[in-house]
């Protein structure tokens, strides 16, 4: 058959033609460019404008960074090395590194202590942030505040030990009575903790801190990025439980308690953090007993905690409101009392919904810790604007320092927000 | 109430205060009330004792005393002989000024960036994502300082613009950008009320003309709507509206004799004369707040647009609407409902963050009342209470106004 076929017709292709590649405009990088960058004329103009913006930013910044001088002891020396060319003067970071991170007065031979505390923070924070890690690690997380306090402030180890003993004693009393009634257990726990702390206050001798293993460091000697971290971590971790209580109080059916919570939350949310910090720096001292001296760090922690707990309370209220009423009714119909239904049914779900919001508040709060520089605490911004920029060697080195501070905050905050997005995907168990 | 399980009446025991649901909430509230009263009593007695020891008392008399300090930027007349109360009012006006300016520009930045982040253009999308991440993750205080540094350290001094042969020319001959701020032309009236000094009445007249124009255009538009509903043809309103907006105001300006006072580089050898000077702190604060909050608003706008389901766009397209009309008639009205509530809280944030003015020396209410007045008089409690009261009022007012608007765009369900 094939013979006749071949003779009858002049030419028959026996095998198929090889496939042609798609047209140049429809494949590879050109297609991508056409679709993503030059789809329409306005789009092309936008692309060119953006490319120009990116080019001019990079052209300004890159030579400045790569031509940077790392070993110079003053701006004048730095300019001498640069000899008229563009370049950053990173010498300031190298020379003032300890001040930027630990503040002016933290004794330099003790820098290992906050560093170790930071490393331990990573270990203590890991099981809280990542649920897949062994739950036993949470024991270390619970111990961490006391270890960190002892490491950073130093002094006698008895103080954090007594504080820890108070919590442990309180917990045992709570665990013993909580089966009868939550209120009884809670009250008993608080009273037991108070008694232990009071006894501890009596038995710790005066001057126990004088010859302690770790020399004690005053709060006012702390500064730099360490101060931002300390304020951020302390206030966020304190304000989550307070925020939960406030949110529950705001949902309460008891008018007086609801009213107290509403007034507190709305008041705090209505005023800027700066005014609350002013309260901490000039006004709060009037409200403590006349002979007491509460140091500025503690006063600031109190005010920032109040501030963030009001915001966290609102986030958690959103979570509580988002739960279907059926959950509340189901808890009631199982015969659980208020404390049990909250602890076992409502809060686990509501907190899960509100985690992204809480993380947002935490990021915002961490950024807001820079505000303490306004009330003359030397956090990283305070260090830059105060001692470093006003020193004779480094007067005028703005960009390197502000860029460094920005970079630190960006890394931390961007990291936390990425974590929050990961967590959101991880916790999305329904409605896929 | 009288179900079988109710315990018999008259057998009240003390434990029922905790165990009986009828009394329990009262018990808890009583405990809360006692604790609250104790806390207030404790703090109050400490306060009184501390004040007595320091020889102070609570009084607002200091507000009437001369303040004794100058304020570089003020919307109303003020000098160092004016009272502390007037300084506080200057601060309040400055706070409102920067807050309003920043709200407007932040909305512009935010909407632009939010819409561009959804653009089909890859480069623009990435650039906007970069903008949002950079600005959201660095504290606003650092941004304020950075922008203030740009204004004061990078821009030239006023001297660069002075003399017959200046180093720099003013933009269009009208604007001079110096490290002390921007000099712009200032308007004044030659035959207005109040003579050469000028008077607020002139500005009120112009405002009245603008309001009248607004009402006029509303009228024209509603007429056009009626015609469209009756005949199906929409009359062209653009030129009429433009005329209604421009003509009355221009005529009024002509009658009043509007003139512009330009910054004059030749007046003396030290500084520019004339015009309005917008101080560097105001510019830094304004710009930093707008661009920082703009990043947050961009995210809200993006979320709002994404919240409108794709079916809406497709339905509109199948009705034959063009893409810009789909945006303005279908997507945006629905997206606004999602965007407005977070936008309100961003406006509140701008107002509260404007208190960071104190970091760059802009005389807002935190800097005058909470800063210099507080330090000069030592009246910490009074000053801070007034300050908080002011911010609280502002917050409540903004929330109230925005809630009214929010209700008006809310989904009307029957």
Q: How many strands, which pairing sense, and closed or not: the largest β-sheet of chain A?
A: none
**What structural category do the secondary elements of chain A indicate?**
mainly alpha
Element order, helices and strands of chain B?
HHHHHEEEHHEEHHHHH
Number of helical segments with 4 or more residues of chain A: 17
> Which oligomeric form is depicted?
heterodimer
- Largest sheet features of chain B: 3 strands, antiparallel
The count of domains of chain B is 2
Report the portion of residues of chain A in β strands.
under 5%
Helical region count of chain B? 12
Descriptive account of the structure:
By secondary structure, chain A is mainly alpha-helical. Among the domains of chain A are: 41 residues; 212 residues, MetI-like fold. Chain A starts with a helix and ends in a 5-residue tail after the last helix. In chain B, a hairpin with a 2-residue loop joins β1 and β2. Chain B has twelve helices and five strands. Chain B folds into two domains: 250 residues, Orthogonal Bundle (MetI-like fold); 69 residues. In chain B, strands 1-2-5 form a three-stranded antiparallel β-sheet. Chain B has a two-stranded antiparallel sheet with strand order 3-4. Chains A and B meet through α3, α11, α12, α15 and α17 of A and α2, α4, α5, α11 and α12 of B.
Topology record:
The complex is a heterodimer of chains A (432) and B (414).
Chain A: H1 2-8, H2 28-36, H3 41-66, H4 75-82, H5 91-102, H6 112-129, H7 137-153, H8 158-177, H9 182-203, H10 224-251, H11 255-270, H12 273-283, H13 296-322, H14 325-333, H15 338-368, H16 380-388, H17 398-427
Helix pairs in contact in A: 5-10, 5-16, 6-7, 7-8, 8-9, 10-11, 10-13, 10-15, 10-16, 11-13, 12-13, 13-15, 14-15, 15-17
Chain B: H1 16-19, H2 21-54, H3 84-117, H4 122-136, H5 140-154, E1 176-178, E2 181-184, E3 186-189, H6 200-231, H7 238-256, E4 258-261, E5 276-279, H8 280-307, H9 310-318, H10 323-353, H11 365-377, H12 380-409
Antiparallel strand pairs in B: 1-2, 2-5, 3-4
């Amino acid at each position: 058959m094939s013979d006749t076929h071949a003779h009858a017709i002049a030419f028959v292709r026996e095998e198929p033609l090889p496939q042609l590649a798609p047209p140049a405009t429809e494949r590879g990088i050109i297609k991508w460019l056409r679709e993503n960058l030059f789809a329409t004329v306005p789009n092309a103009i936008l692309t060119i404008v953006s490319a120009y913006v990116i080019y001019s930013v990079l052209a300004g910044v890159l030579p400045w960074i790569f031509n940077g001088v790392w070993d110079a002891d003053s701006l004048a020396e730095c300019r001498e090395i640069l000899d008229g060319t563009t370049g950053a003067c990173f010498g300031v970071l190298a020379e003032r590194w300890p001040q930027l991170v630990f503040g002016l007065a933290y004794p330099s031979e003790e820098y290992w202590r906050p560093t170790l505390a930071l490393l331990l923070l990573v270990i203590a924070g890991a099981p809280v942030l990542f649920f897949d890690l062994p739950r036993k690690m949470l024991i270390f997380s619970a111990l961490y505040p006391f270890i960190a306090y002892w490491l950073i402030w130093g002094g006698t180890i008895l103080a954090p030990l007594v504080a820890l003993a108070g919590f442990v004693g309180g917990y045992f009393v709570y665990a013993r009575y909580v089966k009868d009634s939550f209120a009884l257990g809670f009250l008993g726990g608080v009273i037991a903790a108070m008694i232990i702390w009071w006894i501890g206050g009596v038995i710790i001798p005066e001057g126990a801190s004088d010859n302690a293993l770790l020399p004690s460091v005053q709060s006012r000697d702390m500064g730099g990025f360490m101060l931002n971290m300390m304020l951020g971590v302390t206030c966020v971790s304190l304000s989550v439980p307070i925020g939960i209580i406030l949110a529950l109080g705001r949902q309460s059916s008891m008018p007086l308690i609801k009213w107290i919570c509403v007034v507190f939350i709305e008041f705090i949310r209505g005023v800027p953090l700066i005014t609350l910090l002013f309260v901490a720096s000039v006004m709060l001292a009037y409200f403590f007993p006349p002979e007491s001296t509460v140091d500025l760090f503690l006063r600031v922690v109190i005010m920032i905690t109040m501030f963030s707990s009001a915001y966290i309370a609102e986030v958690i209220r959103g979570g509580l409101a988002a739960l279907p009423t059926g959950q509340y009714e189901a808890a009631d119909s199982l015969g659980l009392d208020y404390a049990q239904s909250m602890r076992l049914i409502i809060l686990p779900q509501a907190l899960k919904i509100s985690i992204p919001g809480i993380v947002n508040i935490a990021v915002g709060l961490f950024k807001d810790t820079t505000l303490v520089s306004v009330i003359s605490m030397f956090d990283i911004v305070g260090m830059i604007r105060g001692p470093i920029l006003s020193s004779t060697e480094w007067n005028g080195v703005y960009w390197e320092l502000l860029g460094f501070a920005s970079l630190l905050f960006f890394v931390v905050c961007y990291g936390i927000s990425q974590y929050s997005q990961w967590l959101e995907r991880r916790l999305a168990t329904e409605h896929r | 109430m009288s179900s079988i399980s109710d315990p018999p009446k008259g057998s009240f025991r003390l434990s029922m205060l905790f165990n009986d649901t009828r009394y329990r909430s009262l018990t808890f509230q009583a405990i809360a009330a006692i604790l609250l009263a104790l806390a207030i009593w404790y703090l109050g007695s400490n306060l009184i004792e501390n004040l007595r020891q320091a020889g102070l008392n609570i009084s607002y008399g200091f507000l009437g005393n001369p303040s004794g300090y100058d304020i570089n930027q003020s919307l109303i007349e003020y000098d160092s002989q004016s009272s502390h109360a007037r300084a506080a009012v200057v601060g309040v006006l400055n706070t409102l000024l920067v807050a309003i300016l920043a709200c407007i520009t932040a909305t512009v930045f935010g909407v632009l960036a939010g819409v561009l982040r959804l653009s089909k253009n890859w480069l623009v999308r990435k650039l906007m994502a970069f903008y949002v991440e950079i600005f959201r993750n660095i504290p606003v205080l650092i941004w304020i300082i950075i922008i203030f540094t740009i204004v004061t350290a990078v821009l030239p001094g006023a001297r660069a613009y002075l003399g017959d042969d200046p180093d720099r020319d003013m933009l269009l001959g009208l604007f001079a950008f110096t490290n002390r701020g921007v000099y712009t032309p200032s308007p004044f009236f030659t035959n207005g009320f109040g003579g050469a000094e000028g008077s607020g009445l002139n500005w009120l007249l112009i405002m009245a003309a603008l309001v009248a124009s607004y009402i006029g255009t509303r009228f024209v538009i509603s007429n056009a709507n009626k015609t469209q509903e009756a005949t199906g043809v929409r009359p062209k309103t653009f030129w009429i509206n433009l005329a209604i907006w421009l003509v009355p105001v221009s005529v009024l300006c002509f009658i009043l004799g509007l003139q512009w006072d330009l910054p004059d580089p030749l007046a003396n050898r030290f500084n520019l004369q004339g015009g309005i000077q917008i101080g560097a702190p105001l510019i830094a604060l304004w710009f930093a707040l707008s661009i920082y909050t703009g990043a947050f608003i961009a995210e809200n706008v993006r979320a709002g647009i994404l919240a409108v389901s794709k079916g809406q766009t497709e339905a509109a397209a199948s009705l034959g609407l063009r893409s810009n009309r789909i945006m303005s008639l279908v997507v945006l009205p629905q997206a606004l409902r999602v965007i407005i509530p977070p936008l309100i809280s961003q406006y509140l944030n701008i107002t509260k963050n404007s208190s960071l003015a104190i970091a760059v020396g802009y005389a807002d209410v935190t800097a005058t009342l909470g800063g210099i007045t507080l330090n000069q008089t030592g009246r910490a409690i009074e000053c801070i209470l007034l300050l908080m009261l002011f911010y609280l009022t502002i917050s409540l007012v903004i929330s109230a106004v925005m809630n009214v608007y929010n209700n008006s765009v809310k989904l009307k369900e029957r």
